[in-house]
Design a protein that fits this description.
single chain, Arc Repressor Mutant, subunit A, two-stranded antiparallel sheet, 6 helices, 41% helix
Length: 173
């Protein structure tokens, strides 16, 4: 059983896209189709999320052959909460754990639990920087790998400028 505690798909895409951009920051802008390929999502849906991040000053975008998306803020100073709030509101603490409140007001046995969990999530999102999150993804086995990646086992799939994938430690052009 899984529960996302109210995080939307847009929030998920925003955080993971920013982490991908932070991991390849020195390589410049990345195209939306390349990010979508690595994340395994629709490019059109992802593009809407990326444009919200641009409007909120988290990303910059450019057109043309050298265009794409890149971070507009320092990942060491950018919190996950800021990214989440740019595309969605933070989940409400104390909401129904089962997703559909039917208990009489104030009588749910899970209200205190969801409030505590919500507070912990809120604190973690406020204290965790993008740099920390991206670093944890890079360090995890396989990192953010595309399911269709030609890489084996522990090698990371990296996006190259045209959206193709390359294996290994560095990103090709």
């Amino acid at each position: 059983m899984s529960h996302n505690f109210g995080f939307s798909e847009a929030a998920n895409l925003a955080v993971h896209s920013c982490a991908l951009l932070a991991a390849g920051r020195e390589d410049g802008p990345l195209p939306a189709h390349g990010i979508a390929s690595v994340l395994g999502v629709s490019e059109s849906h992802l593009r809407k999320v990326l444009l919200q991040l641009v409007r909120n000053g988290i990303l910059r975008s450019g057109r043309g052959a050298a265009g794409g998306f890149e971070l507009a803020e320092d990942p060491a100073a950018l919190t996950l909460r800021r990214i989440l709030e740019a595309v969605d509101s933070m989940p409400v603490s104390g909401s129904c754990l089962l997703g559909r409140p039917v208990c009489p007001a104030g009588r749910c046995v899970f209200t205190e639990l969801t409030g505590e969990i919500g507070s912990k999530i809120d604190r973690a999102m406020s204290e965790t920087t993008l740099e920390t999150f991206a670093g944890a993804l890079r360090a995890s086995e396989g990192g953010m790998r595309d399911e269709g990646s030609p890489c084996d086992g522990g090698e990371d799939a990296r996006i190259v400028r045209d959206g193709a994938r390359a294996c290994g430690g560095g990103r090709g052009r």
